[in-house]
Fold these 3 entries.
Entry 1:
Amino acid sequence: MWGETMNKDLLNQIQNLYQTFSKGQKHIAKFIIDHYDKAAFMTASKLGSIVGVSESTVVRFASELGFEGYPQLQKSLQELIRNKLTSVQRIEVSTDRLGDGDIFEKVLNSDIEKIKKTVTELSRDDFNGAVSAIVGAKNIYVLGVRSSAALASFLGLYFNYIFDHVILVNTTSGSEVFEQIMRINENDVIVGISFPRYSTRTVKAMKFASDRGATVVSITDSKMSPLYRYSSYNLIAKSDMASFVDSLVAPLSLINALIVAVGIKCQAQVYNTFAQLERIWDEYEVYDKNDEENRGDEDKE
């Protein structure tokens, strides 16, 4: 079996073994070396069809490289290239994957599959450990950049309902990030959120927090994520790309679960907070009243 460090050398390994492959396997090897960004998202049948070999030849090729089967080879290629794809390459790859037909159904089914994988693969020990650490923290920092900023904002919003010591880190510039977390220490927790393409600012902030003894909780997509090495608790949510956009459905579901689990641990505090908020919202008419109630008042007039 190939380890995580060997994923990085996969293309070199294929090149080194090239002369030992059969004629058909050489066709596969050449295609992967030249077009690994596309091969990573092809089925064995599709790859075989493109290079002119049978599906069984593709499966045997994976075995020659030491994988249990083609899905493991495919996964290694995906982990290798996902952080390296440019937006233009993402569009090209996703166009090949989605093809024609019902795009709506294909994208939603892909998201459903990512949630299912997240449910089965997430470490419950890490999840429960993260919940306990957050509940017991003196300060809670939340950080997410670019597309992950929306996830961080959502998490920060609800954590602010529960705690009075939440800092949603402003990520406008790299220097501002470090200015905001400069006092982080062993009594604090930082939740860092990043998915391919990984944010350098988030990775550096996680390292900074880890060096200062803070508990680091990462919400990311795999053990190959650069956040993984600095984290006390790793919450892995399966992500994918839908054309040039990031599919963050599974990460958001994970964050929902995290908020609910923390809320249950702080149930009395949450109840008191929302009881007070309801009075404030009502007094300052934050939300519109029900249309039927308004119509009823008009009828009385």
Note: The beta strands are 140-144, 166-168, 189-193, 215-220, 233-236, 240-242, 245-247.
Entry 2:
Amino acid sequence: MLLAKTFTSSTFKVALIAILTFGSAVSAIFLFVYLSTTSYVRSHADRAILADTQSLREAYERSGRDALAELIQQRMADKGFADGIYVLADPASTVLAGNLAEWPSASADLSGWTEFRGSPPAPATMNAPLIRGLLTTFPSGDRLLVARDIGHLDHFSARIRTAVILGVVLTFVIGGFTGFLVTRRSVGRIESINATSRAIMASGLDKRIPLRGTHDEWDAVAENLNLMLDRIQTLMGEVKQVSDNVAHDLRTPLTRMRGRLEKAYHTERTAEADQALIGDTIADLDSVLRIFASITRIAQIETQARKGGFRTVNLVEIAGEVVELYDAAAEQDATRLSLAGEREVLVTGDRDLLFDAIANLVDNAIKHGRAGGEVTVASETVEGRPVISVADDGPGIPPEQREHVFKRFYRLEQSRYTPGNGLGLSLVAAVAHLHGARVELLDNAPGLKFRLLFATAA
């Protein structure tokens, strides 16, 4: 099955195209080398033949046939011309001088370049050598052949041709085999990912793609997919937790409403009792509606649907309005609510969302801070970055729970009987993310400090 997928995969098809392209280029290079080499060797021999022919023609024209025949005999006796082949023949092709017994039958032309096979020195063991020469016909009809044994060139060309063919074949074979191995490896890793995906669909998110420890791109892909699965599993867990918390938070007001209605159904009705029943029911329904409104608003913020309302705003003014709004609530708990920092800290953002975020932080600080304590809202610029912080001197949040407080419906008090729905800090986190800000939870010694650090000033 893996073999069939290997041959039908797009990776293998791309590899074949690459192999054909590369093989064609290598073949063209080898062919160029072959033609260039043989042409160079042949031209070297041709220059020697042409020079020798020129000197012999000059001797013939200067002194006649007998002088040329004598010069040919001298050349044959000279070791410097040992590789030369000379034939002087009359118009009837009768050999007058030279080192061939007869005029070559393959050289019937009157003039020009010719090639023919000579008689092999050892017929049983060697092929006839290849001879290349230049034919010259004089006005008297006498004929001259000056040639060289280029058998070594023939042998060299054959070896070059064989090397070219083997090189091209090896290129395609090695390239095809390498492409097959690479494709098989890729298909194997893809199949491993597919198998894990099928297992996840069949049994759940507890499966992970195995890593081979090669630290290559496939391991990187597998690691990223595993991180994505971890994130999905975490989100699924958070969705389940949110669902459980929503059910718990809705069950309480709905149960109260049902209990009151059932009690009213079985008791004698009065105008005063009906009025109280209606008022309590409306209050519980408002609590339920606030939960859904908060969830909807957080979802809208997280989808960045509010970026169209971004303007340059002053955090100091927004913080001042929040302090003014919560001043009465702070006085009820004997909490001192104060504003500190610079006169102007500008950021680009949505004024209403920033107001809500700061208000939620101040509300939490007043509710969960120390009774009779102090809450400080500060706006400042730190290293060119706008910062707003809300600090209290209450019990704070344990370090191990700080990363969880921004989850929806999360509460430090797990019984969930205290007022609130656990969505305030989730809204703060969503607003911070929308504005590119970072949320920090720091020890205030004693108490806790929330800081919103914006990326750049407006």
Note: Residues 120-125 have pLDDT under 50 and may be disordered.
Entry 3:
Amino acid sequence: MNLSGCCVLITGASQGLGFEIAKHFVSEGARVMICARDVSNLLSAKNELLKIAVNDAQVFSLTADISKKDDVERLVSESISRMGKLDVLVANAGIYGPKGCIEETDWEEWSAAIDINLKGTVLQCRSVIPYFKKQGSGKIIILSGGGATKPMPFLSAYAASKAGVVRFAETLAEEVSEYHIDVNTIAPGSLNTRLLGEILEAGPQKVGEKFYASALQQQENGGTAFSIPVSLCSFLASSKSNGITGKLLSALWDPWSKLPELIDELKRSDIYTLRRIIPSDRNKSWDEML
């Protein structure tokens, strides 16, 4: 995707999908800043990335809590200073939050999930937008998930926050379109990460029999290969995706690599966005009952 020399900030990149995205970008010759809250995990991830750095690739790291405004502003400032510029933000950091019935979950934990997943994402975008506007370009890639498009009983903080970031991304995309800043969210698929481990550890009593059973099946079949969402991130970070903005793309199910061929139609369409379904969308004539 011609990412050599591209300067990328990836949050939540010490493990899981964030780390895999960083690995790919570094292997392509990009300059990458990774961040996480755990110092030890972050250092280990940085050392692993340095081993595969090729050509002009560089790796930087900084501990930060993306739910804290001062941390995020320092992270963005340091990223620009150390890498010399910033082209792409990959807002990957996120958590499941508390599991269980809403009336029984710890309110502080529920609120903390919103602070990290939703408000933390907004903070990251707020901090990079002034630089991207001045630069006249930029790419923002936000990790969403299944919680954005369907109910997730017993994981209400996660579902609400992920739906929120998608609508925020759609809104932001329109705010900054004149500055050639593309803002998109992606659904990476069912990945076997620490989040899956959390569901299995919580058990069916906390997350529900249906979701627990699907988690067991995912563990057994290996889940979605990391290479699939990583490839989508690479595409959205590259110039090949220029003009594609305000969309929620499924790494697994959408023909995203072909979208540049449909760019004019895509810009005029609400395809790959969150919208209310009305009766006529399902071939129902309920409106005639009024």
Note: The chain has a mean pLDDT of 94.
